[in-house]
Specification:
The protein is an alpha+beta fold. Helix content is 50%, strand content 20%. It has a domain at 13-136: Beta Complex (Dna Repair Protein Xrcc4, Chain: A, domain 1), CATH 2.170.210.20. It contains 7 helices and 7 strands. A 7-stranded mixed beta barrel has the order 1-2-3-4-7-6-5. Strand 6 (111-117) and strand 7 (124-131) form a beta hairpin. The longest helix has 64 residues, at 134-197. It is elongated and about 125 Å long. Residues 225-241 have a biased composition (Polar residues). Residues 195-214, 224-246 are annotated as: Disordered.
Length: 272
């Protein structure tokens, strides 16, 4: 599908420049020129240059003419790329108006050429302009002045809308800040009251469940340790058992018992 070529959405371009005169007219009056480029319709651009004094120039450029210019200067890419390059060259590039021909106080220069260069080393765009005189020049200057006023008015309205939008946003932001400050004060007040009402920590008469559990565990542990300390070792147990065995009875005591002698104590036996 072929790309659609035209100037839909083309924003008007206004710029100021001074004319560069050829050598024979080097002493001519150098008044500033106002350049105006806009779309007459979807297929034509109108280029106007005037100093609102002696010189008014105009050129209507069609899509086929721009296609030829595009081929001559060797700009590739799509049609949209070329239009973007054209706009950049005229709006932010180096734009010059070259004047030539016979210069008199009545007729002015005979020829003019508009040259736009986006940046050094890139292709240069050039348009030859046609002289506009008498009432036609007055009409062109009047239309340019009205178009400039409309463009300024549009920009002013855009600025006002942006300012109003910014003011509304600032109002919303201010309200949110006040609301946040109010909520923060309420939170601070609640936090202060909760700290004042909180009872001081006192030792309870009855231990808590966790304390009871811990104390019971400590008691059980101490009891087990005590029992383990009191429990004799294996060696001690054996010695106890050995000590508890009956001491051997002497032979005399045994014989006396057999004979029926009643013994009171071991001391008497020793005395006998």
């Amino acid at each position: 599908m072929a790309e659609k070529k035209g100037f839909e959405g083309f924003e008007p371009i206004f710029l100021e420049t001074k004319a560069d005169w050829e050598q024979e007219n080097a002493g001519a009056d150098r008044r500033p020129f106002l350049i105006y480029v806009y779309a007459l319709d979807s297929s034509r651009l109108d280029i106007i240059a005037t100093d609102y004094h002696f010189h008014t120039w105009e050129r209507v450029v069609t899509v086929p003419e721009l296609e030829d210019l595009r081929d001559d200067i060797g700009i590739g890419g799509t049609w949209s790329d070329f239009v973007e390059y054209l706009i950049s060259s005229l709006s932010v590039g180096d734009v010059k108006l070259i004047m030539s021909g016979q210069l008199t106080s009545d007729s002015g220069a005979a020829h003019a050429k508009l040259i736009a260069l986006k940046s050094k080393g890139l292709p240069r765009i050039s348009f030859s302009l046609n002289r506009v005189i008498n009432s036609s020049a007055n009409d062109v200057m009047a239309d340019l002045a009205l178009s400039l006023f409309k463009a300024c008015k549009k920009k002013q309205n855009e600025v006002v809308k942006e300012r109003d939008h910014s003011t509304r946003l600032m109002g919303i932001l201010s309200s949110e800040r006040e609301r946040n400050d109010s909520l923060q004060k309420q939170l601070d007040a609640l936090s202060f009251l909760s700290k004042r009402k909180a009872p001081k920590s006192k030792t309870s008469d009855k231990p808590s469940i966790a304390s009871d559990t811990l104390n019971n565990y400590d008691t059980m542990l101490a009891s087990e340790m005590q029992e383990s300390s009191e429990m004799p070792s294996v060696k001690d147990s054996q010695s106890v058992k050995i000590s508890r065995r009956a001491a051997p009875v002497s032979r005399s005591l045994y014989r006396a018992k057999v004979r029926g002698v009643s013994l009171q104590d071991t001391g008497d036996i020793d005395d006998h």
